[in-house]
């Protein structure tokens, strides 16, 4: 080997190895000191990125577990308040039963009334003050914003309207059960009448109901389906010259309990007199009608059908053809309303007819479909007053046989101001755009979605930016108006309510807790008279309804707690598994790390020794100079 002094390759090689070993020793020392194998991106870029995401996931899961636990505590607080209300309702039931007994004098009942009033005040106090972390729970702020009525009408054993074809007169208030084999006219002169079906789920046919001409009649329909859209001799007898339901006079109410379907119209082979069916509204409002949804799941479907085109000119709900009615129509608190017709409006004035103002208040969903008429408004030659719609979702379509159909407003008629407030609106002038029931419609030309001028959610109606032509290649004149309110834009048109318990690491992973109002007004027991005895008897039914309502609320609280319990279990499992996976990626194997540390410690010391020996090679050159 040549003896040189300018370059010492062996020393350089030893120095390089020492540096490598020292770097690995430092890394092993760091891993041993911190307990982690991946301390930064330099230790493994992809592993570092994956483990950091897992750490974020773990922190999120831990917070979600805490959220679910605090949410459970919140719901338990609400449950406790509701249970206190139920306890007070039990006491009220005892007091009402006591007052209903004739061993009490009126003076005794007055004493009982004082205790009843005290209990009612206690219930209102509980509803007004039950809170978690200052957030009031039972005052209705986190319930479904639907001022639904709990007035289920008359109670007691139903009177049967038996099978056969005959007229039936109702002169006394009460509950009446209709046989599925009954056909005929039901004439009501009583003031409070509730109808149920003798057989649950049965379809009633060929029935015409008429109220007293004096007005002020309250009718309840509970899970009733009436189909008069058929061509039978019974239909001819029952509805040859009248509506399915005809209200007379003013101040009438129709109360919808659960699911109700009313179908009228459809003449064909039964003779000329049957054309009156198609020129008669399915529900004639008389000189004023209010339709109320009872409970949180009230649904009304009303149709007026026709075998042949161009014959059906009455409104489904409103006036007959050519009939002028002075009263208003108000529809309140229905969860779901659907209506379809041929030439006339779904809701409004028939051809050449008139009704007053049309108002929808607090309706969950409205669906309207016409062949060549209008959804809400007036037919040709007809007129209506102001049209006001307050709903969550509003759908409508018209088939436009001759291009004059209108979804909201007038079809060659007239109307007052139009004011629509809805979270989501979808109106179309072609049946292919918005499916609403089984309606047969033509696809010829376009019509009008909304008759201007109108106001949409407080802003003057402007189709710009909301109207467009749908599927122009197939339906070149297919007009659509679509609107989503800002409050609903973040949830595909759904406006959400209730308390949010966030239970997941994503933005949309949460549990919405609905807690309805629990005050005495909502419970239907404000006021609650127990004097005289008849009032006490009525109070018993009201208290039973309130107890049922309260038990439903507390049952839902229990369901929420069960769901959160499962959620906590799942979140805990997910957190444990994610932590284990993150540990596999990031944590150091201490036995292996200490082995590496010892290895590179020895190699570093060995390299230092070799470097020292290599540095001695240059000094050997001096021996040549001696």
UniProtKB/TrEMBL annotation:
As one GO molecular function, the record gives: structural molecule activity
Question: Organism's domain of life?
Answer: Bacteria
Residues annotated as domain Flagellin N-terminal: 5-141
Q: Where in the cell is it found?
A: Secreted; Bacterial flagellum
Q: Name one GO cellular component term.
A: bacterial-type flagellum
Any Pfam family: Flagellin_C
InterPro entries per record: Flagellin (IPR001492), Flagellin_C (IPR046358), Flagellin_C_sub2 (IPR042187), Flagellin_N (IPR001029)
Give all residue intervals belonging to the Flagellin C-terminal domain: 540-625
Q: What is its main location?
A: secreted
Give the family this protein belongs to, as stated in its UniProt record: Belongs to the bacterial flagellin family.
User: Which protein is depicted?
Assistant: Flagellin
Q: Which organism is it from?
A: Selenomonas ruminantium
Q: What is the lineage of its organism?
A: Bacteria, Bacillati, Bacillota, Negativicutes, Selenomonadales
């Amino acid at each position: 080997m040549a003896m040189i002094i300018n370059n010492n390759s062996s020393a350089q090689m030893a120095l390089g190895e020492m540096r490598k070993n020292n770097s690995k020793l430092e890394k092993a020392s760091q891993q041993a000191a911190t307990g982690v194998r991946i301390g930064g991106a330099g230790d493994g870029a992809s592993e570092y990125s994956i483990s950091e995401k897992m750490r974020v996931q773990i922190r999120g899961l831990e917070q979600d577990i805490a959220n679910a636990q605090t949410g459970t505590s919140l719901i338990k607080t609400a449950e406790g308040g509701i249970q206190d209300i139920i306890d007070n309702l039990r006491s009220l039931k005892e007091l009402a039963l006591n007052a209903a007994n004739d061993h009490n004098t009126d003076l005794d009942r007055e004493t009982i009334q004082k205790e009843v009033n005290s209990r009612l005040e206690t219930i209102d106090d509980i509803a007004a003050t039950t809170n978690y972390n200052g957030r009031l729970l039972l005052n209705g702020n986190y319930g479904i914003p639907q001022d639904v009525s709990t007035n289920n009408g008359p109670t007691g054993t139903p009177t049967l309207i038996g099978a056969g074809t005959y007229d039936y007169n109702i002169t006394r208030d009460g509950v009446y059960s209709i046989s599925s084999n009954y056909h005929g006219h039901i004439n009501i002169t009583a003031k409070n009448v509730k109808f149920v079906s003798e057989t649950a789920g049965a379809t009633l046919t060929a029935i015409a109901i008429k109220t007293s001409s004096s007005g002020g009649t309250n009718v309840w329909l509970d899970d009733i389906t009436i189909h008069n859209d058929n061509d039978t001799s019974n239909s001819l007898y029952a509805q040859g010259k009248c509506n399915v339901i005809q209200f007379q006079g003013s101040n009438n109410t129709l109360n919808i309990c659960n699911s109700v379907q009313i179908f009228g119209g459809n003449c064909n082979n039964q003779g000329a007199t049957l054309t009156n069916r198609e020129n008669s509204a399915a529900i004639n409002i008389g000189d004023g009608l209010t339709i109320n949804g009872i409970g949180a799941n009230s649904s009304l479907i009303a149709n007026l059908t026709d075998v042949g085109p161009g014959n059906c000119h009455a409104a489904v709900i409103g006036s007959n053809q050519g009939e002028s009615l002075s009263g208003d129509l108000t529809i309140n608190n229905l969860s779901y309303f659907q209506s379809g017709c041929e030439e006339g409006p779904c809701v409004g004035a028939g051809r050449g007819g008139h009704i007053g103002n049309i108002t929808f208040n607090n309706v969950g969903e409205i669906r309207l479909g016409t062949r060549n008429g209008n959804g809400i408004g007036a037919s040709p030659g007809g007129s209506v007053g102001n049209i006001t719609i307050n709903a969550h979702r509003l759908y409508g379509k018209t088939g436009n046989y001759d291009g004059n159909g209108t979804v909201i407003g007038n079809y060659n008629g007239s109307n007052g101001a139009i004011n629509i407030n809805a979270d989501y609106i979808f109106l179309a002038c072609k049946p292919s755009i918005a499916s609403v029931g089984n309606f047969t419609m033509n696809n010829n030309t376009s019509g009008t979605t909304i008759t201007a001028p109108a106001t949409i959610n407080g802003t003057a109606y402007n189709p710009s930016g909301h109207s467009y032509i749908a599927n122009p290649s197939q339906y070149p004149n297919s007009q659509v108006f679509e609107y989503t309110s800002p409050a609903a834009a973040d949830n595909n048109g759904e406006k959400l309510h209730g308390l949010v318990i966030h239970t997941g690491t994503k933005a949309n992973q949460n549990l919405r807790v609905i807690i309805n109002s629990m005050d005495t007004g909502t419970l239907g027991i404000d006021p609650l008279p127990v004097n005289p005895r008849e009032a006490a008897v009525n109070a018993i039914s009201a208290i039973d309804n309130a107890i049922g309502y309260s038990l439903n609320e507390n049952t839902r609280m229990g369901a929420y707690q069960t769901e959160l319990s499962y959620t906590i279990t799942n979140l805990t499992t997910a957190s444990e598994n994610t932590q284990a996976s993150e540990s596999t990626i990031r944590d150091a194997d201490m036995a292996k790390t200490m082995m590496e540390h010892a290895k590179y410690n020895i190699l570093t010391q060995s390299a230092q020794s070799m470097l020292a020996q290599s540095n001695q090679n240059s000094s050997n050159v001096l021996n040549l100079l001696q």
